[in-house]
Amino acid sequence: MLAISTAWNSTTRANIQEMLLEIKEVGFNAIEIGYNFSSERLKELISLISAMDIRVASVHNFCPLPSECALNRFPTDCYRLSSTDETERRKAVEYTKRTIDTARRVSCGFVVMHAGTVELNSDYAKTLIRLYNEGKRGSPEYLQIKQEFLAARRAKREPYLKSVVASLKEVLAYAGSTGVKIGLETRYYPQEIPNIEETEYLLNLFKDKGLVYWHDIGHAEVNERLGIAAHNDYLKKFAEYLQGIHFHDLRGIDDHLAPFVGDFDFSKIAPYIQNNLIKVIEAHPPATRRQIKEAARRLQ
């Protein structure tokens, strides 16, 4: 199955029907429902997909979005499953369960999930990204900041990882009763959970509970370019858990471009792309119709 995420045009098309028509016009009959839908817009979307003969390949947490979120965070990070604040963690679990309900309503078997973050006092990731963009990757300054970051993350991660485990126990128990599997997604920022070591730990811990691996090409490549983990190590280590892939391209560490318009060499991951995997193009605006059509043609 080749699908496209509604992240491509849901913010540029206020009208849901027009959004879906555009998706069909570029050649797709399957979508991933992205995370930027209010309850009202989601209700309208669900009412239209069946009539328009559109399948749902996956649903991205949170869907619908929490309406009362007041934290200054990216929508998928509104409430964290890794939070050491029990009130926040409970809200993250609650809204993840609502996403599972959404998946069940649209006869979809997968929810793609961000697991949280290790909260640090310094924004090492922003510094590493700035130095990378200045062409200083590999410099003594870069390597020093990276070493400090990795040490700080390792020293502080345990309570956050413990919260993730507690959250997953609840989420997976709930999902299991619906037949929905939870896709643990590769993360972009290196302070986020899981890194490659934590991915292995969580997949092994919950391997019989419905937790699967969801590979994000752009995010894994950013990890490699920042010198955190090799891209293909994710695919080699977690092949038995791999159920879905987010396809997008990047230039440097600027990701979510349409596939084949950036500088990523897709041939390096080709040996790992099996026919039974759910494949989702997760390009964001301003990817054009022409770019999306060409990406679909080449991926197919």
Notes on the protein architecture:
The protein has 300 residues and is α/β, with parallel strands linked by helices. The protein has one domain (2-118, 160-299): TIM Barrel, CATH 3.20.20.150. It has helices spanning 16-25, 39-49, 86-105, 124-133, 140-176, 196-205, 217-225, 231-237, 289-299; strands at residues 2-5, 30-33, 55-60, 110-113, 116-117, 181-185, 192-193, 211-216, 242-247, 249-251, 254-257, 278-281. The protein has an eight-stranded parallel beta barrel with strand order 1-2-3-4-6-8-9-12, surrounded by five helices. The longest helix is centred in the middle third of the chain and has 37 residues, at 140-176. The protein is globular. The model has no long low-confidence stretch (mean pLDDT 95).
